[in-house]
Specification:
about 170 residues, alpha+beta, Nuclear Transport Factor 2, Chain: A, six-stranded mixed β-sheet, 3 helices, about 20% helix, about 35% strand, mRNA binding, Nuclear_transport_factor_2_euk, NTF2_dom, NTF2-like_dom_sf, RNA-binding
Length: about 170
């Protein structure tokens, strides 16, 4: 090949990496869960909810495979609401996902999942960190009393944003 004609592989954006990963990840998790551990490496950590609501981390490929196979999440159909991806250190990608999972009985569970995708030797990425949390949607009307329904201003929730949580010059 003549000098100057060599072509480099196109650099993928964090969004490109995220889109490709999520398509593969949720497809494999649903159709071939026994293969899902291949997204991870020995140094990966996967933290997912247990049936009792507690969280459990798996830190070996064997434990990650066991955790996937014991999980009921693989039996649910994902519907992604939001996907956010950001480039991070050494070419890695941080990926945040929210959505819902629906089971065969149409029971819906809302979730938030965060992935840290690290570059691997030979190209591509692996899941270095995976954190899934099932969340219950909260209606604002259940937390904050309506100003229209408040019998007086004392019953209405007042929020003061004049203080700062951070010290320093901004």
């Amino acid at each position: 090949m003549e000098e100057g004609n060599a072509k480099e592989a196109p650099s993928l954006s964090a969004k490109d990496v995220a889109d490709a990963f999520l398509n593969q990840y949720y497809t494999i998790l649903k159709k071939s869960p026994k293969e899902a551990h291949k997204f991870y490496q020995d140094q990966s950590t996967r933290t997912h909810p247990c049936a009792d609501g507690s969280m459990k981390s798996a830190t070996t490929l064997e434990d990650i495979d066991l955790q996937v196979m014991e999980s009921i999440v693989k039996e649910w159909n994902p519907d992604l609401d939001t996907v956010h991806a950001q480039e991070s250190v050494t070419g890695s990608v941080i990926l945040g996902v929210t959505g819902s999972l629906t089971d065969k009985d149409n029971v819906i569970k809302h979730f938030s999942q965060t992935f840290f995708l690290a570059p691997q030797e030979g190209g591509g990425f692996y899941v270095h960190n995976d954190f899934l949390q099932l969340v219950e949607p909260i209606k604002v009307s259940e937390i904050f009393p309506s100003l229209n329904d408040a019998t007086n201003s004392v019953n209405a929730l007042q929020i003061n944003f004049t203080g700062s949580l951070f010290k320093g010059d901004f």
